[in-house]
Structures are given as structure tokens and as C-alpha cells.
Amino acid sequence: MDNAALVEGPASDIDPAQLHAALVQAFADYLIGPFDMPLAQWPHFLARQCIDLSLSRVILRDNDVLAFAFVAPRAAMGVWRLAAMGAVPAARGTGAAQRLLNDLIQRAAHAGMTAVELEVFAQNTRALRLYESHGFQALHDLHGYHAQPWSQAPLSLPSPTSGAFAPLALEEAYAWIAQAQLTGLNDLPLQVTPPVLAANPLQLQAWKLGRALLVFTLPDEVKVQILSLIDRNPAQHDAYQLALQLRSSFPERACFVHELQRSDVGGDALARAGFECQALHQLLMRRSIT
Q1: What is the phi/psi pair of residue 286, to 5°?
Q2: Which of 107, 117, 143, 206 is a Cys-bridge partner for 286, taking CB atoms 3.0 to 4.6 Å apart?
């Protein structure tokens, strides 16, 4: 492939169908399976990933999208998040990914950002080597958890030391998370924070107990999905009680968490509540810009 014929430009200038097709091709052999998303859901994907196409870039050859780097700005934190980066099979090995990554770091610095961040599966060694070679360092492991239906749920749960849990309006829950970010938890993955939660089309519920908050949804008839679990207390007593209450409230459903849960703000509580930590996990990585 003639690299001189490669042209870089804003993703906002590209037809959505082209961007969608490039994403599907690039992730056809993804570590956790192909990215099978219909074109009709493309706007929802952008919203849930908080992607700004004007900040995102593509590499073109003869008007065909060969590679892309989608950016989700976290302006309040002074961070740009690399929401997704990939290349179609024909463009792999051309240096397109390195070119886009270097460009992202340079533009973030020019925009006054203090860091660039991303999530990558720890088992994706090729991508991990690329990011490490560009100065990204792992901040946290992000685990997924799964619990089978609670066929023998206890008749009563231990009394929480922080009082009874309380349902919380989503606006209050989002404000609580935002405050937590401002007062110490400034490196939560974007997906467990208000911008992404608010873009979720499903009906969400929030519970609060003491210093812990749980946001979850019922995506179908048989599962419960935890979208955000945060405990400000390192002991995670309140998160543990919320996890038990969730399983007890829906004993006929399996419960799961995607690979976005930090162990130190809720993951350890899930494990104590009978959730199995999944081996496949992500790393939250960040590169400082000086």
C-alpha cells in the first residue's frame, strides 16, 4: 500500500455509513467477538461512547476509510479519551494506527489537555504494546463480574451498618457520582459516569447506601446488569450490602458487570457477595501530557 496516498481528516466529514462499515470491519476479529452493530444503532453508539466526531480522525485512501481514532473528550478533567481505534484488515501494518495515535496526543496537547486515556483488554498484547510504546501507563484493572441466579437466597440479609438502602432519583445519582469525581475519584472509567449512563436508552435504577451507590438495569427477562458501583469507603461494606440486596431482590436473574469495574471501589464487594471475577479484563491506561 502506498502510504503517500493516505490522507488524514476529521471523522465528521465522513458519511456515517462509511464510518460504521470501517468499525465493523476493523473489529470483525476482535478479542471478545465481532462488533455486530446495525447501522441504525450508529447514533446510539456515538452517544453512549460520548464520541465527538469533530475531534476524531480517519485515514483515507481513495475516499475509503482505512483507519479511525474516535475521541470522547472529558473536558472537566482535562482529558481526551480514545474511545475506539482500529484499522480495516487491508490497512494493518501500514503504520496508520501509530499515525493516528501520535496525532491524537499532539492535538490533545494543543487543546490544553493534561492527559489522554483509553481502555484496552490486558490480553490484547498487540494493542497493549502499541500503547505502552507511546507512553501510556496502566492506572487500574477493570474487571467484569458474573453471578448466577440465587436459587438459595437467604430469607434475610445482614443488617447494614449504614442504615437502610434507599432508591435514588437518577439526577441525584448522577450528581453524587460527579461529586465523587471532584473529590478524589477522578480516574473512574467514563462508562460508569453520568455522561454515558444518561445516554443509556434502557430504564435505569439507582440505589444508595451510606457511602456507596449502585446503578443498574434489567436489560431482558433473565439478567440484571450493573452499570456503576462505587463505594467511597475502601472497606466497601456498603457496596457489599447493595450487591446482596440486588441479588436478593432479583433471585431468579443472573447478574453481570462488564469489564469496567475497579476492584478498589466496588469489585471486592462483588466478590464477597458471590460474584465471580472474570479472567478477561481491561486496563484503564493514561498518558500524561507535559
Answers
A1: -145, 145
A2: 117
